[in-house]
Amino acid sequence: MSSEYSVELKGLNKIYSNLLKEDTVALKDINLQIKPGEFISIIGPSGCGKSTLLRIIGNLDKPTSGTISYRDGADQQMGFVFQDSVLLPWKNVKQNAEFPLVIQKKQTKENEEKLDELLELAGLSEFKTALPRELSGGMKQRVSIVRALSYDAPLLLMDEPFGALDALTRDHLNEELLKIWQKTKKTVIFVTHSIEEATFLSDRVIVMSARPGQIKEVVTIDLARPRGDVTRNDPRFAEYNKYLRGIIG
Amino acid sequence: MFYHKYRKIILPAAFLPAFLIVWELYVRVFHVPNYLLPGPAELFWSMIRLFTGGEVMKHIAVTMEEILVGTAIGIAIGLALGYLMAKLKLIERLVMPFVIIVQTAPKISLAPLFILWMGLGIESKAALVILVVSFPIMINEVAAIRSIEGNVYNLMKILKARRWQVFTKIEIPYSIEMLLSGIKLALTQAMTGAVIGEMIGAKAGLGYLLTLGSETYDIKMILNAVILLSVIGLGLYLISEFVERKALYWKVLDKSVIG
Ligand SMILES: Nc1ncnc2c1ncn2[C@@H]1O[C@H](COP(=O)(O)OP(=O)(O)OP(=O)(O)O)[C@@H](O)[C@H]1O
Ligand SMILES: [Mg+2]
Questions:
Q1: Gap from B160 CA to chain A (nearest CA, Å)
Q2: pTM score > 0.95 for this model?
Q3: Where do the domains of chain A lie, and which CATH numbers do they carry?
Q4: Could you give all domains of chain B from N- to C-terminal order, each with its CATH number?
Q5: Does the beta carbon of A52 sit less than 6 angstroms from any atom of ligand 1?
């Protein structure tokens, strides 16, 4: 099914059946319309079904009921950034980043040039031949992001990509991610635990509640772009954070 | 500087002559009869005679052939079975109980059976080597495939990779990693398998020389066979370690015992 929205979710439910315990209702009646080019964050308490929702959008898991439609139909191209970077240890930075192009047989000169630009943008130009074991956690995650962008999929799904990083690195990578997003005009769905991160990055923040996992509220973040240090010092930034913290409880 | 760099070679090289001199003196001073323990000089000349006699090359070749052919086939069988077991639950449930039973029995104990079935030639020993090598490889392959993170498969799914791409780009590299780190052990076991098989029944090979030496009270032949086996074992170890280091460049490898 195709849609004018980048992604459209209608009446999505996900129930995990378990022989020993009661069934887990991981997602209940999720309805969501995401516009092309939008930056959406999903936030909520641990176990509320954020990863489940993202995996269903990424076609890695099937919903128990409900429908998903993508702008490009069933064979929608997507990028996915996992919490742990999932790099192949025998490939260097460049080879890991271009892995999707190899798999999809898209190693054109144009795509290779674009990849070089992305590596440059992510500050990885000097580390092209480094192996994953030689990289810091933040660098690995950058490679993982460049890899997800390398084949120019219009939809980017990210599951707590910076969750394992320290606050300084995280802030820094958030700004870089926004730069890349502004350049490439992707639709981004970003799962996070951090309220500040969600506010800083997003056009809209989806707040979920736990058991059953439902959408509690959708908050539109009306802060000017491009965002940076100025945004973080804006009193309205603090207000949004306070408001979101209030809803999550 | 020079000493530090080549310490690993200089120290044993200095120790060896000392050891040989003590050995030679011990044999001479205490008049040890040479059918119990020959001196190093005498042993050295008997080794030269063994090589100039020409026969010994044939025995070395036979043992090497058993080890190499058996290991190659054993690896292939172990990999194929291990992969199938890791991928198909049904096969695992069918085969695993038998694997555990055979695995716990000393496989060497099957040697007399193989020799009865396949004769005194290379085949029975190669079969024993195949058996000895394929089991650990199979079990390691199951573990290697199982150890691949779920998200690696998720990544391939997101990239809309085909089944054979998952096989060639992910599963084969992970299997090679396992194989290379397991090959040293496999070769050691292969050598034990081949030699024991030869000792039980063979017409040629270094294990056959060992038995022949013990039956004819020829201690020099036994010692020479042991020395040749050690040299072959060391050679195989160094080669597999070299290959491992080159191929697993992306991994931090443990410091080796030798080399
Ligand atoms: N494969 C599964 N089988 C059974 N239950 C599952 C499975 N995956 C997730 N669940 C359950 O579904 C619920 C939602 O899990 P999910 O991983 O989506 O939460 P989350 O919001 O991403 O949590 P976190 O913030 O800790 O990552 C949890 O209660 C979890 O126990
Ligand atoms: Mg999660």
A1: 8
A2: no
A3: 1-76+155-249 (3.40.50.300), 86-153 (no CATH)
A4: 33-247 (1.10.3720.10)
A5: yes
